Structures are given as structure tokens and as C-alpha cells.
Amino acid sequence: MIGAIAGDIIGSIYEHNPIKTEEFPLFQINSRFTDDTVMSLAAARAILQDRNYGLEMKILGQLFPDAGYGGNFRKWLFEKEIIPYNSWGNGSAMRVSPVGFAFNSAEDVLREARASAEVSHDHPEGIKGAQAVALAILMARQGASKKDIRSNITASFFYDLERTIEEIKPAYHFDVSCMGSVPEAITAFLDSTDYESAVRKAVSLGGDSDTQACIAGAIAEAFYKSIPPIIITEVKRILPRIMWEIVEDFEKLYPCCELGE
User: Fold this and answer.
1) Domain boundaries of the chain, sorted by first residue
2) Cβ of 80: how many Cβ atoms within 10 Å?
3) Angle between the 195-203 and 178-190 helix axes, to the nearest 10 degrees?
4) For the packed helices 178-190 and 124-141, what is the interaxial angle rounded to 10 degrees?
5) How many of the other CB atoms lie within 10 Å of CB of 191?
6) Residues 73-120: pLDDT tens digits?
7) Strand pairing partners for 89?
8) DSSP bridge partners of 177
9) Is residue 230 exposed (0-12), middle (13-18) or buried (19+ Cβ within 10 Å)?
């Protein structure tokens, strides 16, 4: 899960300042966590405490009200009831990584990904985006090849994963829909050689950089099982203590990468 959070922080600078290059500083003075991190940690805490995903999202989200939520989600966040609003946005996909790390069968992962999505994003495309990302993470951490991940996700969700990042990049633009951003984020992982290159490729699309780097980073962590220690150190420095404690609790039960001291 820390791969998703690191991707979010790295991509945060470029969400509204898109770039089309992989050459950029990973962390800058204004690098920050966004709603991607807050909601990913809320999903993680829901799993750890066996509680409703929507409830945990509201609790943690209200503690961090300025994390950059979209207008409809922000309205949902502060409503008393947990009522979905038929969203097809990529918010369902950016927060789902804990599901891919915590559950060990495709059946369980698909069920929990749906549950984590439909508390707000109950549009079929919103659910599909979350399930695709969670299943890719499960396959990656269980040792599937990129070829098998590509073919399985394509067959299951009808995403076009045959293009390369370099083919996508020239005409690509900011897109917050699952259908217009999740396949490209998965492709960033498929084209990568390690964790860092996956995140760099996702940012270089010039789109919804924090979310796409969050998704690509989560799958890359599961696949490569290694994140440069300097990246983990920066994440720990940036996150408030309450957030880092959720990371530590989750990684103790569902370890993937060493967090260090």
C-alpha cells in the first residue's frame, strides 16, 4: 500500500501542472498527500477493523477536509448517510490498493473491491475500475507475469492495454474517469522496469498524475516488492503520525516492502 501513497505524493505536484517527461524531481517542497492517500488509508483501516468502507472514509476524510476531494465526493463525505451517487470517477480505483494486498483470492478481491467502490462510486465503470486495479495488485504480488496480468485484465474488464506509454502520451490529457485513466495507469506499470519507473511513466502521461501514479505505484510495489528506501523515508516525513500508524499497522499484517526504521 505504501507504493500507492508514495505515487500519490510524487504525482501531487503535477496534477494541475502536467508534464510529458519522465525526468523530474520525485519530491519537491510542495509535495503533499492528497485525497488518494486519505481514502486509501481509510480503506486500509476498514479492513484492519472489519468496518464499513464508507464509514471509515467519512471518519478519516473529515479529519483531513482539505486533501483535494472532487466536488461531488466532498459533498458525500460530509453527509450523514452513506448514499452512493453513481460516480464513474477514478476515486474508486485510487483507494482500492489495500484490498489487493489484504485478500488472497480473486473472488475475495473482486468482492471487496466492489464493496469499497460502491459506497460512493456505484456506477458500473466505477466498480470496474476498482476491481481491475485490485485484481492486478493481487496477480502481481502472487507472482503473475506482466503478460498474464495484461491478458487477464484485458479479458475481464475490456481495457485496452496493448498501447505503450509513448503511444498514449502525445494525445493524452487530464481525465478523471475510470475508463479514461485506469487503463493508462496500468499500462505505466506494464511498461516499467522497477517501482520508480512505473511512477515516472504514470506522471509523464500529463493526466491526473497523483491518481495515476498512485495506481501504477501500488501495482509496481506488488510486482517488484521493492521501493527505494529514500522514497519510503520521504513518505514517512510527509505523512501525519496518525496516517503513518495506519501504514505500519497494515504492513505488519500484510507486508510487501520493508518500511525501515
Assistant:
1) 2-14+27-253
2) 6
3) 140
4) 10
5) 19
6) 999 999 999 999 999 999 999 999 999 999 999 999 999 999 999 999
7) 177
8) 89
9) exposed
User: All 3 cell numbers of residue 244?
Assistant: 503513518
Q: Can you spell out the DSSP letters for 53-112?
A: HHHHHHHHHHHSTTS---HHHHHHHTSSS-------BTHHHHT-HHHHHH--SHHHHHHH
CATH number 1.10.4080.10 given to 2-14+27-253: yes
Question: What does pLDDT average to over the chain?
Answer: 96
Cα dihedral 27, 29, 33, 35 in deg (nearest 10): -120
Q: Which residues contact 137 (CB under 8 A, 6 or more apart)?
A: 97, 99, 100, 101, 109, 218, 219, 222
C-alpha 77/C-alpha 80 separation (Å) is 8
